[in-house]
Design goal:
six-stranded mixed beta sheet; 6 helices; 29% strand; catalytic activity; Endo/exonu/phosph_ase_sf; Endo/exonuclease/phosphatase; Endonuclease/exonuclease/phosphatase domain-containing protein
Length: 275
């Protein structure tokens, strides 16, 4: 699927509207504090902001057969971790049985995501993960995601619900410079954005008589198929035959134009885009 960037940071990187390096065509969804964000570089993705809290932001994107909600969260090491966990909890509770991906910097120590020790914040996060049946995506042998002088740590991690655990294909910390004391983390999600192409017939300029002429050889077989139908299966087969015959006649009669179709998901409305 196209890229989705989950960002959590201590400095307000995107609080300046004309910040260099971030193309204006990218969609940026910030938390109220401007310390968590979901960034959508691709216009192929229909993204809808569904929650904007002090420490978290949630965006829903249509992937595969159902939508996926991406949540970015940040909690300062000096703040109450429960406030951020409650914001995430509210969103998870409102989306039962849906696919949810969480990228977070919660500044908690726990051996589950790389640290050699466990602190009170890490314990609170662990209890939250277990209570919500979430899965940690981090690689157990991943290098530190945070380095500053002689300090190092693993404050950054990602979680997902059971519905998408099979789609997490890879999780790795990148070595390329990030212009920050946090490393880039690349997570590959094995999913797709549904796009399709349909054939459009140019009927405005006539050729209808030619269409009827091309359809005529199929009429008798179509009538027999419907008259001989005895059950639902026969009706479905006759209907499929009718559709194929009409398409064949159209192909012989009208000019065609292939048109890309990127359908809006059933949850996506213009009101969401306006918001």
């Amino acid at each position: 699927m196209p890229s989705v960037l989950i960002v959590a940071y201590e400095a307000s990187m995107f609080s300046t509207p004309n910040l260099g390096g971030i193309p204006q065509s990218w969609n940026i969804f910030n938390s109220i504090s401007n310390k968590a964000a979901v960034i959508i570089p691709s216009r192929q993705l229909h993204a809808a902001l569904i929650s904007c809290k002090q420490n978290t932001v949630a965006v829903k994107i249509q992937t595969g057969q159902q939508p996926t909600t991406f949540i970015s969260a940040y909690s300062s090491p000096y703040s109450n971790i429960q406030e951020t966990l409650l914001e995430i909890q509210e969103k998870i509770s409102s989306l039962p049985r849906e696919k949810i991906f969480i990228g977070a910097d919660l500044n908690g120590h726990n051996t589950l995501w790389g640290y050699n020790d466990v602190d009170s914040r890490g314990t609170a996060i662990e209890k939250f993960i277990l209570a919500n049946n979430l899965f940690i995506n981090n690689s157990s042998d991943a290098p530190p995601t945070f380095t500053r002088n002689t300090s190092k740590g693993w404050p950054d991690f990602s979680l997902c619900t059971q519905q998408m655990i099979g789609e997490i294909a890879n999780w790795e910390g990148l070595e390329e410079p990030s212009l920050s004391d946090h490393q880039y983390i690349k997570i590959t999600i094995d999913s797709s954005v549904k796009n399709c192409t349909f054939t459009r017939y140019k009927t405005r300029h006539g050729n209808h008589n030619i269409f009827l002429k091309n359809l005529n050889p199929y009429v008798n077989s179509l009538l027999r198929a419907f008259r001989n139908s005895q059950n639902e299966k026969d009706i479905n087969e006759a209907t499929n035959l009718l559709q194929n015959c009409v398409i064949e006649a159209c192909n012989k009669s009208y000019r065609t134009k292939n048109q890309n179709l990127s359908p809006n998901p059933n949850w996506y409305t213009q009101d969401l885009e306006i918001e």
